[in-house]
């Protein structure tokens, strides 16, 4: 049973048990079991997402592509920075925020963030 239908079934079962006329001792136990099962499913999903995030470490070929794409580029405006960021994020199949962070770590932030480009231009006296 897929997670969404399983969650829906557990929620429906919990609602059924809550309004049913079964003895209270059994009702409490069933409610606890259903609630704990729902929590376990949610915890498993959170763990799965955390694992996926951890496995999203940057690979050498991704870093090379990022460096190659951004090398010698300087954002000319906010729009230009965003376009450049979105283009490289699409090529890497990564979240733009993580691409911006990685570019900044690599010293290429001026290519994808106009604040850095503007500060760099002011530093040069342009």
Secondary structure layout plus pairing:
Elements: H1 3-19, H2 24-54, H3 60-70, H4 78-92, H5 96-105, H6 109-112, H7 114-124
Helix pairs in contact: 1-2
What does it look like?
This protein is rod-shaped. The model has no long low-confidence stretch (mean pLDDT 88). It folds into two domains: 3-54; 60-124, no CATH class. The protein is mostly helical. Helix 1 packs antiparallel against helix 2 (24-54). The chain has seven helices and no strands. The chain has helices at residues 3-19, 24-54, 60-70, 78-92, 96-105, 109-112, 114-124.
Kindly list the characteristics that best describe this protein.
79% helix; 2 domains; mainly alpha; 126 residues; single chain; 7 helices; rod-shaped
* Poorly predicted ranges: none
Rg calculated over all Cα atoms: 25 Å
Characterize the biggest β-sheet: none
Strand percentage: under 5%
The number of strands is: 0
SS class: mainly alpha
Short structural summary:
The chain has helices spanning 3-19, 24-54, 60-70, 78-92, 96-105, 109-112, 114-124. The protein is mainly α and 126 residues long. The chain has two domains: 3-54; 60-124, no CATH class.
């Amino acid at each position: 049973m897929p997670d969404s239908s399983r969650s829906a079934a557990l929620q429906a079962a919990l609602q059924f048990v809550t309004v049913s006329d079964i003895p209270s001792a059994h009702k409490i136990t069933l409610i606890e079991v259903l609630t704990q099962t729902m929590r376990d499913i949610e915890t498993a999903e959170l763990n799965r997402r955390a694992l996926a995030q951890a496995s999203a470490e940057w690979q050498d070929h991704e870093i090379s592509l990022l460096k190659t794409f951004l090398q010698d580029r300087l954002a000319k405006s906010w729009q230009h920075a965003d376009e450049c960021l979105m283009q490289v994020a699409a090529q890497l199949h990564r979240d733009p925020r993580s691409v911006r962070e990685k570019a900044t770590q690599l010293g290429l932030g001026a290519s994808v963030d106009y604040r850095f480009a503007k500060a760099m231009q002011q530093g040069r006296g342009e």
